[in-house]
UniProtKB/TrEMBL annotation:
One of its GO terms (cellular component) is endospore-forming forespore. GO terms for molecular function: 4 iron, 4 sulfur cluster binding; DNA photolyase activity; S-adenosyl-L-methionine binding. This is Spore photoproduct lyase. Keywords: Lyase. InterPro entries: SPL. It holds the Pfam family SPL. The keyword Secreted does not apply. The keyword Repeat does not apply.
Length: 432
């Protein structure tokens, strides 16, 4: 009897430390029965509850039904010294088979993640330093040494994979003294620099609220040696069409196939509207760029992404495009935890997750290489006309995807800036 009480106590403890309470009642009962049959460890029970939550979000058959059909019938022949070992040998093998296949969005409808949508806009004077390095800059991967300006905290969009949702609350905080802080940023006038503004929020979704774009454009005019990038998933480009834009400002768009936008990038502009907005900006003489980041591995990716490449090459003059980047889904553990906790309909976690050099979770190398190589080939006619790069990837992936790699981050940064300013026009040399 004491032993049974002990296992009951363990189960009660596990329930409190996992997402067990968020599961459907039938799934709870099934996992309880399974627990008393196999006496799972905490990590094993955590894996089961996380998988049950994933299946709910993916619109997959319930975990209980899947285990009954795919796992339990194979236990007798499975390797392992104990029933528990046999169970997880089969369970992990079947789950790997499921996650390693490209997911499908046919017949699926990602739900709008209501909990992500911010509800309050605040102007705030803060002591925060708004100027810094890209949060993923590292010597472990080939990085462009991007600097960042955080003019706003929190984004109004609801992209399922986004890191912003774990760092900030549902308040959108605007720097009330942005101009003063921009004026205090020390920039070496003799050095070219790439600064982005889309790390803590979308750069254009808020328009010129609080004179934010006025201040950023003044900053760009003051520092002609700075390539100032405004990155967006919006079509909100009226400010660019109605105002003089400094030549060293580049407006860039994150792009994905429409089915990914529909299911994983909630509240954002459609692919068509993003490209139309980019064309309007480019036709005004403003330089643009495109980021295929994150590229999503799903059953139609090999046709859908090259189709976007063809749209871009058919619509844009390569002289108007400064760069095109590619990157994969990469998530930190808190993001994965938040996705499961919120439980909205998404298939973003229906993927094989492996650690990258920074300890984040991403696709296996072979999937990345296949996707990047395919997309790079789709842009073959532009290889000598536009600067292409990978974001946050190892040198080996560069070599196998692009056929070349920069020797270090400084060489990468120099090449990107040289290519960009050759199209923009280099600033006047500094004279004594």
């Amino acid at each position: 009897m004491a032993k049974n009480i002990n296992w009951q106590q363990k189960l009660n403890s596990y329930k409190e430390q996992t997402l067990f309470k968020l599961l459907a009642e039938d799934e709870k009962r099934f996992l309880e029965e399974l627990f008393f049959t196999f006496h799972f460890s905490y990590q094993e029970f955590l894996q089961l509850t996380n998988t049950a939550r994933d299946f709910e979000m993916w619109g997959h058959a319930s975990l209980s039904q899947w285990i009954k059909n795919e796992v339990l019938p194979s236990l007798e022949q499975a390797p392992g010294r104990t029933p528990r070992e046999k169970f997880f040998t089969v369970f992990n093998a079947r789950l790997h088979e499921l996650k390693s296949k490209p997911k499908s969005y046919n017949g699926f409808k990602g739900a709008v993640p209501k909990a992500i949508h911010p509800t309050k806009l605040v102007d705030q004077v803060s002591q925060k330093n708004i100027f810094g390095w890209c949060p993923v800059a590292s010597e472990k991967t080939v990085c462009c040494n991007l600097r960042t300006i955080d003019a706003v905290e929190t984004c109004s969009y609801g992209c399922s994979y986004c890191t912003i949702q774990t760092f900030y609350s549902n308040r959108v905080v605007f720097e009330a003294d942005l101009k003063s802080k921009l004026d205090k940023i020390e920039i070496d006038p003799a050095r070219l620099l790439h600064i982005g503004t889309g790390q803590s929020s979308d750069s254009l979704v808020w328009g010129n609220r609080n004179s934010m774009l006025d201040d950023l454009f003044d900053f760009a005019r003051k520092h002609p040696n700075v390539l100032l990038e405004l990155k967006t998933k919006s079509a909100n480009v009226s400010y660019f069409l109605e105002n003089d834009v400094p030549p060293n400002v580049v407006c860039t768009w994150s792009l994905n196939p429409q089915i990914i936008i529909d299911n994983e990038e909630h509240f954002t502009a459609s692919l068509t509207n993003r490209l139309k907005a980019a064309k309007k900006v480019a036709d005004r003489g403003v330089k643009v760029g495109f980021h295929f980041h994150p590229m999503i591995y799903y059953d139609q990716w090999a046709d859908a992404y090259p189709a976007i490449a063809r749209q871009i090459m058919d619509s844009f003059d390569p002289d108007s495009v400064l760069f095109i980047s590619m990157g994969s889904v990469t998530m930190i553990r808190p993001v994965i935890k938040q996705i499961r906790k919120k439980g909205f309909k998404t298939r973003i976690l229906q993927m094989e997750l492996v650690p990258d050099p920074h300890g984040k979770w991403t696709y296996p190398d072979e999937i990345k290489i296949e996707m990047f190589k395919t997309m790079y080939r789709a842009f073959a006619d532009w290889h000598q006309k536009v600067f292409f790069y990978l974001c946050m990837e190892k040198a080996d992936i560069w070599l196998k995807s692009f056929g070349f790699v920069f020797q270090n981050n400084e060489e990468f940064e120099e090449a990107l800036l040289k290519s960009s300013f050759e199209k923009i026009g280099f600033p006047e040399p500094i004279t004594a």
